[in-house]
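Hey, can you fold this one?
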Amino acid sequence: MSDDVLAIRDLHKRYGSGSRAVQANDGIDLTASAGQVVCLLGHNGAGKSTLVNQVVGIAAPDRGTIRLAGVDAVAHPARARALASVQAQANVPITGLTPRRAVDLVGRIRGGRRADVRRRTAHLLDALDLGPWADVPAEKVSGGVARLTAFAMAAVAPGRLVVLDEPTNDVDPVRRRLLWREIRAIADGGAAVLLVTHNVLEAETVVDHVTVLDRGRVVAQGTPAALSAAHPGRSLEDAYIHLVGQAQPAAARHPQEAAR
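Sure. Predicted structure:
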């Protein structure tokens, strides 16, 4: 039996029509297995967020299949969504709450027992060095603390799939290392992690497998070591630049946009 938690096959998503149409996803295949951190790597506009939106049922594909823990996520998006935990690119507003209360509430909403959620919340606050801000009103915390709180909300009661969209934005270098450690721990605990980022250097630190997107298409897949070894410079950053090249000007990609 396959241990794939997420299986995407021949995924297509197009926005608009005629000369203004944008092919956001163009025949994407991707898998993420239990215990694995899979990095979806690509520049802004490569199609990463569109892919995530389809995985969690916010958007429907034009063609292709998505299975999440055995559930057809296209036919049953609500059922699939219940099996996933998501840290979105934009933080969820928690005005009126403290980080501790926000994390605890999400754990309870996801069905965790009170004692277990309290214990897990305390662990995450400690592991991410959020203790000094744990009981401070959310309106008074920094962007980095808010970002770490959003991660903890996704991690307190992780689903079969944990989707992390740019989780390190605004996080300082010291706590960023703590965050990577917790991401690895989620996978080691048996979940599949889909890590979405355009930060090439960070992608090397904790991931097992990399899928590189460029203009909606998969241009390379493999371990960070294999992708690095196969390209000049022998680093993932060099491999990435070699694969996607310099971003084309908007006029070259979509001439009609340049005229607006």
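The chain has eleven helices and ten strands. Let me know if you want another pass with a different chain boundary.
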